[in-house]
Amino acid sequence: MTEPILTYFFYFKFFCLAICCGLLIGIIYYFWKLRLFTKWAEKWQNWWEIIPAFSLSGKSQKEWKKIDKLLKEPYQSSWKLAVLKAEAIVKKTLNFMGYAGDDFTKILEELKFRGYQNLEVLFQIHNIREKIINDKNFSLSQDRAREIVHIYKKFWDELLNTL
User: Fold this and answer.
1) What secondary structure letter does DSSP report for 51?
2) What residue ranges in 91-155 does DSSP mark as E strands?
3) Among the residues of the chain, which ranges form H helices?
4) Nearest-CA neighbor of 156 among 62, 91, 72, 103?
5) Does the model's pTM come out above 0.90?
6) What pLDDT is stored for residue 25 in this prediction?
7) Are 145 and 83 in contact (CB under 8 A)?
8) Are 82 and 67 in contact (CB under 8 A)?
9) How far is Cα of residue 39 from the mean position of the Cα atoms in its chain?
10) ∠ CA 151-156-162 to the nearest 5 degrees?
11) Tell me, what DSSP letter sits at residue 55?
């Protein structure tokens, strides 16, 4: 009489193990979909003062591809967004390199003291970015937006070469 009960418990253990594994896989999948693991990793990297290589990762390359897609769209708002995102990538890379600050102009002034050249162009296109943000009627052509993004990309590449 006890043998059938032991057999059922034996199979019940495997059934419960399979369900637990399935639930664990589901939890991990949803954490991955919600990007909680990357948020925790960034939090721990900041706490341990580990500078992630954002600028060398595929993530930054994807961001530049998104910017290129925005520049190909026929909408002026997309071109303006591309300019804003390009400066954001450069600023994020500069922050990772240790140039902290909320104001991009102050970061550029600090770079000027460090010996970087041709920063006047970056000051000018930063002013264009400020006009995009502050003036809703500011007009930006697609060619000018491409030129601005190209300057940011070139500067970003120069930053990578200094690492």
Assistant:
1) -
2) none
3) 2-33, 36-47, 58-72, 76-96, 104-113, 119-134, 142-162
4) 91
5) no
6) 92
7) yes
8) yes
9) 12
10) 130
11) G
